[in-house]
Amino acid sequence: QEQLVESGGGLVKPGGSLRLSCAASGFRFSDFFMSWIRQAPGKGPEWVSYISIGSTSIYYADSVKGRFTISRDNAKNSLYLQMSSLRAEDTAVYYCARSMGFADFWGQGTRVTVSS
Amino acid sequence: EIVLTQSPGTLSVSPGKRATLSCRASQSVGASLAWYQQKPGQAPRLLFYGESTRATGIPARFSGSGSGTEFTLTISSLQSEDFALYYCQQYDSWPWTFGQGTKVEIK
Predict the structure, then answer these.
(1) Nearest residue, CB atoms, B49 vs list A61, A102, A108
(2) B89 touching A (Cβ < 8 Å)
(3) Mind listing the pLDDT tens digit for each residue in A3-46?
(4) How far apart are CA A59 and CA A62, in angstroms?
(5) Which residues are CB-neighbours of A5 under 8 A, at least 6 positions away?
(6) What SS3 state is found at A89?
(7) Which residue intervals of chain B are DSSP H helices?
(8) Are B72 and B51 in contact (CB under 8 A)?
(9) A90 Rama class: left (phi>0) / alpha (psi -120 to 50) / beta
């Protein structure tokens, strides 16, 4: 059974850092592009970042460029998002998603709250 | 950045009736548009991608159409489990963007 399980969310102060992880199982992780997508309370989803199979192509939303870093470890079937210089507007549920432009499979999300 | 505008914001429909949701793009996205359904407390679920390719497990009462800048999601006969939020998303050019959503509620 396909699964994506995010972890690492929590409460952090403005300017702080957090590392999100996503563990994949039930499918061949190394065959798929992956993404992080977030959803602020009461808002629509926002595509944060995307990484190709071999990590050769990486894209970021302008809102996080220079502050967030996406990475993956195909040997560990894992996706990561290193977030730094966090702001209140980064508060959201962060989803890991298998993606080929569209996201055909999503994790359950991990909540990140940036507040003093 | 391509802006997607969904209409209406809220659609009130009786069970068993037809629902038609629209998504308009600020510039052509070709056939690179997807539709998602989201229920409270859950992640979005893919319904359609491409011109009208139904995702795995999506019932036939859902249909998608359109290309370029105008797209439509139709639910032919609303069931209780269909009352939810629906989002369109373009993946023609980065940044991939979502519409603001249409809420389908029980009339």
Answers:
(1) A102
(2) yes
(3) 999 999 999 999 999 999 999 999 999 999 999 999 999 999 99
(4) 9
(5) A22, A23, A25, A107, A108
(6) helix
(7) none
(8) no
(9) alpha
